[in-house]
Amino acid sequence: MILTHHGISPQVSPSAYIQQSAHIIGDVHIGEESSVWFNAVVRGDVCYIRIGNRVNIQDNATIHVFSGGIPTILGDGVSIAHNVVAHACTIHAFTLVGMGAIVLDGADIGEECLIGAGAVVAPRSKIPPRSLVLGNPAKVVRTLTADDIERLHKTAENYVRFSREYIEQGIR
User: Fold this and answer.
1) Sequence-ordered strand ranges (E) for the chain
2) CA–CA separation, 31 vs 52, rounded Å?
3) Residues 86 and 62: beta-carbon distance below 8 Å
4) What is the Cα–Cα distance from 43 to 87, expressed in whole angstroms?
5) Cα–Cα dist 38/60, whole Å
6) Which of 58, 82, 99, 135 yields a CA-CA distance of 20 to 30 A from 158?
7) Cα(126)–Cα(58) distance, rounded to whole angstroms?
8) In this predicted structure, what is the pLDDT of residue 32?
9) What is the CATH architecture of 2-168?
């Protein structure tokens, strides 16, 4: 469901897949071949949200902003797994945020990171590129390998393929 808030409507690329149970609200831009899955909420009501190309926001994820002027920005190829909360943060290209993880206000996650399932990234955290981040509170535990980084890119590619399959089957 795409909803206007205070006269501002989401801008969604025609090639994006938005599952009908998802809610996209307000000042949100969604790039080419991105997907928003079952029951996800992307709420740009008190600040803006910018979602790059080939981003996937999986089932039950929540993307929100901070009324103090902190947007949420998701770079190209970002994967937001099931039940993630990404709140007023920046997540750079080809990062995967694992199931149930929480990324809080002002956090800045570098390119090609893996945020482990259930991790809690504290407000204003700065995570360097290509980091494996685990725990609560989240800590960088190592640098990702070339194989790890390849899997991040494959995840983004897989979700583009999944969304095409759903579109072809008429599943909206």
Assistant:
1) 2-3, 11-12, 17-18, 23-30, 35-36, 41-51, 56-57, 62-64, 72-74, 79-80, 85-87, 90-91, 96-97, 102-103, 108-109, 114-115, 120-121, 126-127, 131-134, 139-143
2) 5
3) yes
4) 10
5) 6
6) 135
7) 24
8) 99
9) 3 Solenoid (2.160)
Task: Please identify which residue in the block is written with the tokens 């993880």.
Answer: 101
Longest CA pairwise span in the chain (Å): 46
Question: Residue ranges per domain, the chain?
Answer: 2-168
Residue at token pair 């991790």: 119
Q: What is the pLDDT along the chain (172 residues), one digit of tens a residue?
A: 999 999 999 999 999 999 999 999 999 999 999 999 999 999 999 999 999 999 999 999 999 999 999 999 999 999 999 999 999 999 999 999 999 999 999 999 999 999 999 999 999 999 999 999 999 999 999 999 999 999 999 999 999 999 999 999 999 8
User: Token pair for residue 126?
Assistant: 């700065």
For the record, the structure tokens of 45 come out as: 């009501």
Residue 27, phi then psi, degrees to nearest 5: -80, 75
Instruction: Give whole-number Cα distances, 107 to 29, 61, 64, 86, in Å.
Output: 20, 17, 13, 9
